[in-house]
Amino acid sequence: MKTDLKMTTYFQELFDRDLGRLELEINDFNPESNLWVIPSGVLNSAGNLAVHLCGNLRHFIGHELGGFDYQRDREREFSVKNLPKNMILEEILLCKNQVKSSLDRLEDQILHEKYPIEHFGKPMTYGFFLAHLYGHLNYHLGQINYLRRIIEA
C-alpha cells in the first residue's frame, strides 16, 4: 500500500471497493425476486437496503460534499418494491461514480474541519462523518450478504 496517498484517497478506495461489493451482492441474487423477500423477523429486503444505501450516499456524499443535484426520498428507499435488478445496479453505479467524484474533490485538511451540518445533534468533523457513512455502508452490506445466503439456502 502506498503511504504517500491523501487520506481522502483512502476513503475513496474503501467506498469504491465496498460499493463494488454491493454491486456483486445484488447481482448474485437468484432468482431476482429474492431481492424483495423479507424473512420472518427481518424488517427490510435486500432490495430496499441497496436502494437505501444509494440514497444515503448520494445525499450525504454526492449532494452535500460533491454538489450533485439530488433530492433524497428516504421513505421511498424503504417502501419501493420489485424494482428490476438492473435498475438497482444502475443506481449503484451512479452512486459509485458520484461518491468517487465527490471524494476526489476533497483535500486532506478538510477531514479535520468541522462539518457544517449537525446531523447527529452535535458537532463533528468531515473525517468523522465519512467514517460514519462508511460504517453504515458496511453494516447494511453485511445484512444484504446474510439475507442472500439465508433466502437462497
Overview in brief:
By secondary structure, the protein is mostly helical.
Could you characterize what this model shows?
The protein is an all-alpha fold. It has helices spanning 7-27, 46-63, 74-79, 85-104, 126-151. It is elongated, with a radius of gyration of 16 Å. The termini are far apart. The model has no long low-confidence stretch (mean pLDDT 95).
What pattern of helices and strands is seen along the backbone? HHHHH
Shape: elongated
Oligomeric status: single chain
Roughly what is the average pLDDT, rounded to an integer?
Answer: 95
Show the helix and strand layout:
Layout: H1 7-27, H2 46-63, H3 74-79, H4 85-104, H5 126-151
Helix pairs in contact: 1-4, 1-5, 2-4, 2-5
Give me some keywords for this one.
153 residues, mainly alpha, 5 helices
